[in-house]
């Protein structure tokens, strides 16, 4: 989840077994948050798990969350951190 403003979150959920991704967009003021949420959920669809703060694949409570793929994400995949 990304909190672009006090009035709402951009939220996403991925269900790889069912080949579905859901994205909740309360407003369009923060396109980078929408783009990052889609990229994050697509990461889950490809098998990546949550990694550490500062990464695109960081969990919702791991701040800061990156808006793009980082070296931390690559390292997590190389180390086999999958859900």
TrEMBL record:
GO terms for molecular function: metallopeptidase activity. It comes from the Bacteria. Its EC number is 3.4.24.-. Belongs to the peptidase M48 family. It is an enzyme of class 3 (hydrolase). It comes from Corynebacterium tuberculostearicum. Pfam families: Peptidase_M48. Residues 4-71 form the Peptidase M48 domain. This is M48 family metalloprotease. Binds 1 zinc ion per subunit. InterPro entries: MetalloPept_cat_dom_sf, Peptidase_M48. Keywords: Hydrolase, Metal-binding, Metalloprotease, Protease, Zinc. Its cofactor is Zn(2+).
